[in-house]
Amino acid sequence: MRLLNVTAFFFAITSALLLYGLNYDTRRLEDEVQAKEHAAELARNDIAVLKAERGNLARPDRIDALARHLGLMPPRPEQYQTGREVSELNDRQENADGRR
Amino acid sequence: MAVVEGDAAIQRPRDGDVPRQRQTRRLTETGVFAVLFFAFAEVAIQLVTLALSHQPNVTLALSEPVATSFSRPDIVDRNGRLLATDLQAPSIFADPGVVLDRDELVEKLITVLPDLDAADLRRALSDRSRRFVWVRRGVSPKTAQMVHDLGLPGLSFRYELKRAYPAGALAGHVLGSVNVDNRGVNGIEKYIDDKIGVDPVHAATLSTRAPVRLSLDIGVQHALEDELDDAVEHYETDGAAGLVLNVKTGEVLASASLPRVDPAWPGKYLDEKHIDRMTGGTYELGSVFKTLTIAMAFDEGLAKPETIIDVRQPLEAGRFTVKDFHPAGRPLSVAEVFTHSSNVGAGMLALQAGPEKLQGFLRKLGMLDPLNVAGASVVAPQVPPAWNRAATITVSYGHGIAEAPLQFAAAAATVLNGGKRVQPTFLRKFETGEAVGKPLITATTSRQMAQLMRLNVTSPDGTGGQADVPGYRVGGKTGTADVPDRGGYASKSVISSFLAAFPMDDPQYLTFVILFEPKGVASTGGRHTAGTNAAPVTGRLIARIAGELGVAPMNTIASQ
Questions:
Q1: Per-residue pLDDT tens for B254-263?
Q2: Are B187 and B173 in contact (CB under 8 A)?
Q3: Considering only alpha carbons, which residue of chain A is nearest residue B159?
Q4: pTM of the model
Q5: Is B287 among the catalytic positions?
Q6: Which A-chain residues 62-81 have CB contacts (< 8 A) with chain B?
Q7: SS3 letters for B410-442?
Q8: Is the complex ipTM more than 0.85?
């Protein structure tokens, strides 16, 4: 009877200690998960801000002004060439270079 | 102890009471223990209940309900370029119970937020029973830091979602705006609330929904707005509107209305002058309407392009006499009626068809019923109350019937799309399949109309010559409509418009430019007709966007 009591007591103490440890482990893991989630949330917000900033920097009126400042302008119809014209241009260039 | 018992014994009247008193005492003890037991049991039950109903997020316990905010999906253009997104922004609130010096707080806040309503805030703060008063929602992080640095007790911050529009006022009318709770109020933002969905959030949690992809191309949109800006300045107009529509799919590539609105400052959306003139207002569009009248005449088999009409006599229409702006003084072919923009000719064609056929044709093209467009609300057309002789004549050249320009553009696109209905949309279409359904007009009529529109630009006496862009086969029709005034029409103010499409051998894109009350300036020789203002604006616009839209220019000589 006494042995049973001692064993039971021993088991009770051991399981209490184990539970205590497990409890702390769980809390630590929970904290870690929360920290990770928080970091992910921050990263998501940073991405949103960066996306908005990129959108703001790439807005067409700004690019337009910058491009014109560099001396660029919308393409004129005569600047387009058909595929054949381009390949002919290429051939002529190669002939001139003496590659043929 | 004995003395006490003795005293007690003296006070007791009889010895026989002792066992009864013991019994009473035991009962009392049991009672006390029972009460204690139940109290502890109650505590234990409460603890267990709390432990089971564990809530991970601490909810704000305030005496006033905190307004819920909404997280919204991003809005991007057809190529995925960002037009609207949610950002976290601090909001400032005050707890009147904790505020020490109300006047000091308001005075110091004014230094950072000069446009704050001081009297309103003072009144809100004077109510000590309240625990929560918004001071300003959605400020920039910098402003929040400045307010924080004031070190005022009773002020706190809360992160909320705030809508940001990285492209500024670009496509402001199409995008619409949101209110302070991040709910859509108009435009695409309202459409998102109604049809796509937003998620209520307490904290500033970004939306996980996929972005809403619009049909707009911000490059084309910018080109359109830029050209309209120039037009407003150059022709001293009262406003302008423009549209670029894909004829094959109905996708709106650009839609602008000037004066523009900035989605970040939604107050202006309610202003009469700032309405979206493309969808939110109806106008008598004038001669551009002849495109539909003549299409009807062709489609009903009443005329061919070479049919001759005698337009020398003015038409009597009730109280009015319909005359031509530039009378030709000779009979004109139907093609010439179009290129000379003869009101009499259009009126005669409409009379020949009769009100029923004209009405039926317009109804078929969706001109007489409200138009449903995904992503915008289009105001219903104003049609004549009775289709008598006068109405038939005036409608034939675009008076007496007022339409939202987008609705007219959709009908014109249907005519150019081989008769297949063009349903405008502000959302990107992914299925490439052609529109199904019976063509509303014959392919022949459609081709004839495309040829007439091209002729109006190439022929020396056509009204649209200034819209031509070498290589891109532009075709179009001018419209110079009188503006309704008290009891009639104003003599000096007009709405000048140009409906165009390109390339005319197989129309892909339709543009519609409208200038409101342009003045006659030096470059137009003092005239304010569409051929001198809206047409050249269209030409410049098409020259700028055609390449971007993937329309290959033809050999300049071959294209004429």
A1: 999 999 999 9
A2: yes
A3: A45
A4: 0.81
A5: yes
A6: 64, 74-78, 80
A7: HHHHHHHCCCCCCCCECECCCCCCCCCCCCCCC
A8: no
